[in-house]
Sequence to fold (311 residues):
Amino acid sequence: MRVAVVFPGQGTQSSGMAGPWKGEPAWSIVETAEAALDESLAHLVLDADAAELARTRNAQLAVLTTSLLAWEAARDEIAAHHEIVAFAGHSLGQVTALIAAGTLTLADGIRFAARRAELTQAAADAHPGRMAALLGATLEHAEAACAATDECWIANDNAPGQIVVAGTPAGIETALAAAKSLGVRRTMSLSVGGAFHTPLMADARAGLVEALAAIPLRAPRAPVVSNADALAHDDGEGWRTRLADHPLQPVRWRESMLTLAAAPLAADAFVEVGHGSMIAGVARRTVTGVAVIGIAGPDDLAHLTDDPQES
Fold:
């Protein structure tokens, strides 16, 4: 079976998210990550409450670490039963995908993710912004809503009917009003710390370039689909630019899933590795004939031997 391994991003965090992995052999990932940062992470993935996890750095490290726990536990089983044709990750999940694919080492990836979170939060503090979901909107609706102001942009094209816009507080208000006038049935403000994946993150780029300059980047074991262009890339060095630009560019997740499902990758199933089922939800609205196998805890490993059309 041809599978694409996909990882969730910020927004999927919840208290106790790594609890199912406590005591499993894969827990060594937490210890390795703690050594890389010289700080404790176990509390974040086991005990932190919603308020603590709402902070950008905490949320991103919790999601990344939990996804890597699941990958450590699942990777040999995935390889034993399936052919991995590609990796991808939603927003922060793209960093997880690059670690899983071998482009980044675990230690380098953890340190880069922490630095990325710090830089993007600093940019958000300097240029306050908001994000909001346009539910039931088409891409054309979102583009027209954002065209009503020069301070709002499409941040995430997640699936048909699920598009996220981001911008300054004033820009968001203008865009949401325009969206309603265009017939968008529902809008929802998101509880996040800034206008991520927009030009308001531009201050972060120089720091990301500096951080990446000291990190070796290797060719992946299978292509990694980029959020920015929804294309599969099999090189390592190109990720210096892609990762530096990533916080400023929209996440083209709908197109990324279509890339994973279409030739030449032609995945028969997506294996969603990490907490929650966000990717399964948007995949069902985007691709047909592609099942999603979720690996959120040890009990889910048995699904890797199931017929994916039945899982």
